[in-house]
UniProtKB/TrEMBL annotation:
<keyword id="KW-0547">Nucleotide-binding</keyword>
<keyword id="KW-0067">ATP-binding</keyword>
<dbReference type="InterPro" id="IPR008145">
    <property type="entry name" value="GK/Ca_channel_bsu"/>
</dbReference>
<keyword id="KW-0418">Kinase</keyword>
<dbReference type="InterPro" id="IPR008144">
    <property type="entry name" value="Guanylate_kin-like_dom"/>
</dbReference>
<dbReference type="InterPro" id="IPR017665">
    <property type="entry name" value="Guanylate_kinase"/>
</dbReference>
<dbReference type="GO" id="GO:0005829">
    <property type="term" value="C:cytosol"/>
</dbReference>
<dbReference type="Pfam" id="PF00625">
    <property type="entry name" value="Guanylate_kin"/>
</dbReference>
<dbReference type="InterPro" id="IPR027417">
    <property type="entry name" value="P-loop_NTPase"/>
</dbReference>
<comment type="similarity">
    <text>Belongs to the guanylate kinase family.</text>
</comment>
<dbReference type="GO" id="GO:0004385">
    <property type="term" value="F:GMP kinase activity"/>
</dbReference>
<keyword id="KW-0808">Transferase</keyword>
<feature type="domain" description="Guanylate kinase-like">
    <location>
        <begin position="4"/>
        <end position="182"/>
    </location>
</feature>
<protein>
    <recommendedName>
        <fullName>Guanylate kinase</fullName>
        <ecNumber>2.7.4.8</ecNumber>
    </recommendedName>
</protein>
<dbReference type="InterPro" id="IPR020590">
    <property type="entry name" value="Guanylate_kinase_CS"/>
</dbReference>
<feature type="binding site">
    <location>
        <begin position="11"/>
        <end position="18"/>
    </location>
    <ligand>
        <name>ATP</name>
    </ligand>
</feature>
<keyword id="KW-0963">Cytoplasm</keyword>
Length: 208
């Protein structure tokens, strides 16, 4: 059985990764979603174990010490990390998994999983990105300013990714990601091992 494919959806703060991922979750139920651990407090409507595993700083540090996280990053004063076992288990069961994480974490995953597929979600323009960050309205001015400067730096990391998807419209962005998933499943490398095995079997049968 082929291993599943690890997809990483990342991109600058405010680009809409969370919204796109929530829509993908609805549209592609066979794709497995990695639920991150975080030390930030739940926002209204967020559920523990569904949106995040909400942890205290102590609990989070324990996860780091126990090597339970595939990657982790500090982002605007809080920690975020990807539970390792769930990712490994899902891939070994032949299922695809998607991580929705910020860029520092994505780069760390790239070092460990060079075979992963890295998708950079882009805003239609930098101006649009600024509007989205300001418009979210859930954060203080200081947090917004910080998020904005981080987001501009993050845009410069595009060259580390395999694909760029513009999030101009959620449906369109999801369709593009879905096409990437299909294309990745059609990569010849995924068939070579099995094909060689079949060819070997044919040759052995011929020699009998
Ligand atoms: P928020 O607090 O808005 O839910 O998320 C803040 C940022 O943390 C987003 O860019 C989100 O993609 C990122 N994030 C969520 N989970 C993880 C994770 O497990 N690891 C890393 N590195 N970033 C994450």
């Amino acid at each position: 059985m082929n291993r599943g494919i690890l997809f990483v959806l990342s991109g600058p703060s405010g680009v809409g990764k969370g919204t796109v991922c929530a829509e993908l979750r609805r549209k592609l139920p066979e794709l497995v979603y990695s639920v991150s651990a975080t030390t930030r407090s739940p926002r209204e409507g967020e559920q523990d174990g569904v949106n995040y595993f909400f942890k205290s700083r102590e609990q989070f540090h324990l996860m780091i010490e126990n090597d339970a996280l595939l990657e982790h990053a500090e982002y605007v004063g809080n920690y975020y990390g990807t539970p390792r076992d769930f990712v490994e288990k899902t891939l070994s069961e032949g299922k695809d998994i998607i991580l929705e994480i910020e860029v520092q974490g994505a780069l760390k995953v790239r070092e460990k999983f060079s075979e992963g597929v890295f998708i950079f979600l882009m805003p239609p323009s930098l101006n649009e990105l600024k509007q989205r960050i300001v418009g979210r309205g859930t954060e203080s001015q200081a947090t917004i300013d910080h998020r904005l400067s981080v987001a501009v730096e993050e845009m410069n990391l595009l060259h580390h990714y395999d694909y760029a998807v513009v999030n101009d419209e959620i449906d369109q962005a999801c369709n593009r990601i879905s096409s990437i998933i299909t294309a990745e499943h059609c990569k010849r490398e995924r068939f070579l091992g099995e094909l060689f095995q079949q060819l070997e079997n044919v040759e052995t049968a011929d020699n009998v």
